[in-house]
Amino acid sequence: METDDREGNRMWEEDSSPKHLLDTMFARGIKRKCFDGEEDIEGTLAGFKSVPSYNLQRQSLLDMSLVKLQLCHMLVEPNLCRSVLIANTVRQIQEEMTQDGTWQVINAQNTGQASLDRLVSSDILCRSTKEQGEGKLVPSYSSFSKDFEDIQSQDIISDLSTVASVQAPRNPQSNVWEMENPQENRGNFQKSLDQIFETLENKNPNSVEDLFSDVDNSYYDLDTVLTGMMSNTKMGHCDVLESFSSQTTTNSNSNCKSDINELDHIVEILVES
Amino acid sequence: MIPGIGNLTQDTLWCFSQVKGTIDIGVTEADIISTVEFNHTGELLATGDKGGRVVIFQREQESKNQLHRRGEYNVYSTFQSHEPEFDYLKSLEIEEKINKIRWLPQQNAAYFLLSTNDKTVKLWKVSERDKRPEGYNLKDEDGRLRDPATITTLRVPVLRPMDLMVEATPRRVFANAHTYHINSISVNSDYETYMSADDLRINLWNFEITNQSFNIVDIKPANMEELTEVITAAEFHPLHCNTFVYSSSKGTIRLCDMRASALCDRHTKFFEEPEDPSNRSFFSEIISSISDVKFSHSGRYIMTRDYLTVKVWDLNMENRPIETYQVHDYLRSKLCSLYENDCIFDKFECVWNGSDSVIMTGSYNNFFRMFDRNTKRDVTLEASRENSKPRAILKPRKVCVGGKRRKDEISVDSLDFSKKILHTAWHPSENIIAVAATNNLYIFQDKVN
User: Which domain range does residue A73 map to?
Assistant: First the structure.
């Protein structure tokens, strides 16, 4: 389990804990609008939609899922089944948000600058060597996070959302994952996810591809992608979070270096063998 | 009472028999049991743990003096099956945790089992040695070589009894065939081949050949971006050596016939229950992911376990299961929390009893559940040290969902989610069960009158 058991092993002793509130919010939502005889508290979407907090809950779920995709044990290869299930959940939420038009709302407020596309793509890939070349992402952390927090109300889930929002950079300038068409949010999200996978598979198209042309690409597969970057493998759980929130260019440079170092390391092994 | 046939609550009372493992409050990670399996006669019980060790218990012969007690299981052999490894290319560790153990049927005096971690399957031979040769000519009893000049007579070495020694030796190592993590192994009924399944591929092996395996299922998409489904479990049919099933993270089961084609990417049968639209939520897919699939002993049914239910399917009916049992439906309203703390990804296993009339699976708070398919009764029992007096009858437990909690009930919010029973095993012909609770192995038997 990722989260620690704070008070012994009781999961829900602290009534004010975010998870408990999420559960009760889901439950409360349904009770207000519950159809007669409906047992399932998790509830139908129809039941939720009229509840004001539904969007908030859904957003937290999205944030939580994105955090989960990134923060995995880097020492051991992560569980592919878990990653796939979480990624599918993220896609599901995004699809619904697109259909709802909520997706558009968020984009409008960010006035074409950052988008949740970038939330996903940039977070997961903000340390890839390709991105370092652009060099535009990192300074934007603080401004985006502020916008993001404005969208959501400052309430009990703020802990969870703060973590996620801090990770989302804003990139006003052109970016590898720039949306060509703001209307096609859904397609673009999918495209971003795809681009994540693709970018990771061809980690550095110029030199690396030549070096690894004989190597089975499956080594750099979905599992690596979904859990973050190859370059993060040496970082622990806390390090990743800290580096996200430190918001300095030096951070990005050092990660660029660690990328290159790792590349050297790999080349060394190949050459020696 | 006929052994192996259970009629719950009326005839079967489960009693504590034994518990293996330490009572320490702090659990060493390496001691956490990760798999439990009886052999085909039930004489041996094997466990694998996170530290890569295998411990085999053997049932002692029942003595005529103790008719009220069935044979106890005592440690027979312990060995280190897998060691941690490091994948230099990916800079990642390969865990030594034993994911599965499967026994081979006994064909001679030795016992054989397959054990696997995420990447490598090993065939172990466990054999007894109770005699040793004595009276060599060229060396003395300590093993030191004798000076040939001092040898004046010749003698024939004889075998003399010695203290029983149980040796485990690795006979085959089946490596480098899996890019992804192995989740299942299954011995074929031909006893010549077996399969190993990882997240995206299933390979067929011959026991004698370790440097080659035959890929029989490959669901890896050409474009990894399109990956939305993985293989979660696989098993051979118990009687038909050409048939096997595998389950997926989307709650589907595919039955394949190896005679149809070399690569069994196209299934022969496809089992899926239509989704209940009223129950739909963002967690629907996750809780539908199948964590275990098991053929019945008869080969007529398959049982699947997903997060909240156990289902029994008739091989002849693909569009829905014939039976569905709720394991812990009270968790349905807690799915968000369980997603947050990752418990929703716990992989529970399920088992049949010897006669396929009762099925068993684990839950949280060290609870485990049994469902009688004939009487439709079910019972919740607990594996805990408090109920560990010899031959103490286990009291049924109950979780109360809301409102007034009765005296012996436990409320959903008080459940301990770190105490999960993922692995259980049922003796092939008797009512003896082994339940793994973190680092302890509990053995329960039905009450012998």
Answer: 51-109
pLDDT at A196 over 60: no
What is the C-alpha radius of gyration for chain A, rounded to an integer number of angstroms? Answer: 20
Report the chain A residue with the minimal C-alpha distance to residue B119.
A77
Please give the pLDDT value at position B391. Answer: 84
Task: For residue B323, give both structure tokens.
Answer: 């039976």
Calpha distance A33→A27 (Å, rounded): 10
| Contact across the interface for B91 and A230, Cβ inside 8 Å | yes
Helices (H), A110-247: 116-125, 129-134, 141-151, 158-166, 185-201, 207-211, 222-226, 237-246
Looking at chain B, which residue has its C-alpha nearest residue A221? Answer: B224
In chain B, the N- to C-terminal Cα span, in Å, equals 9
* HSE (side-chain half, CA atoms, 13 Å) at B338: 26
- For residue A43, being part of any structural domain is answered with no
Q: What is the pLDDT at residue B23?
A: 82
Residue of B25, B218, B225, B332 to mutate, testing the A interface (most A Cβ within 10 Å of its Cβ): B225
Q: Which residues pair with B217 in a beta bridge?
A: B202
pLDDT category, A267, cuts 50, 70, 90?
low
Residue B165 tokens, joined = 């020694």
In a domain, A73, yes or no: yes
Compare CB distances from A85 to B223, B285, B336 and report the shortest one's residue. Answer: B285
Helix (H, G, I), strand (E, B) or coil at A30: helix
User: What is the C-alpha to C-alpha distance for residues B442 and B358, in angstroms, rounded to an integer?
Assistant: 19
Number of domains into which chain A is organized: 1
Record the pTM.
0.71
Under 8 Å between Cβ of A176 and A131: yes
Is residue A70 in some structural domain?
Answer: yes
Query: What are the strands of the beta sheet with B33-38, ordered from one edge?
Result: B33-38, B44-49, B53-59, B73-80
Q: Among B180, B281, B417, select the one facing A80 at the smallest CB separation.
A: B180
pLDDT > 70? residue B177:
yes
Give chain B's largest Cα–Cα span. Answer: 93
Q: Select the highest-mean-pLDDT range: B58-62, B109-113, B393-397.
A: B109-113
Residue A122 lies inside a defined structural domain of this protein:
no
Please report residues of A whose CB lies closer than 8 A to that of B415. 11
Q: How many CB atoms lie within 10 A of CB B208?
A: 9
Query: Could you state, in order of their start, the residue ranges of all structural domains in chain B?
Result: 16-124+176-446
Taking only the tens place, the pLDDT of each residue in B399-436 is 998 777 788 899 999 999 999 999 999 999 999 999 99
| pLDDT > 70: percent of chain A | 16
CB B418 to CB A5 under 8 A?
A: yes
Residue in chain B closest to A230 (alpha carbons) equals: B90
Question: Token pair for residue A111?
Answer: 């006035």
Three-state secondary-structure class, residue B84: coil
**Per-residue tokens: B265:** 């990417």
Taking chain A, what is the end-to-end CA distance rounded to the nearest angstrom?
Answer: 38
Fold adopted by B16-124+176-446: Methylamine Dehydrogenase; Chain H (2.130.10)
ipTM entry: 0.91
CA distance A69 to A232: 13
Distance separating alpha carbons of residues A2 and A71, to the nearest angstrom = 9
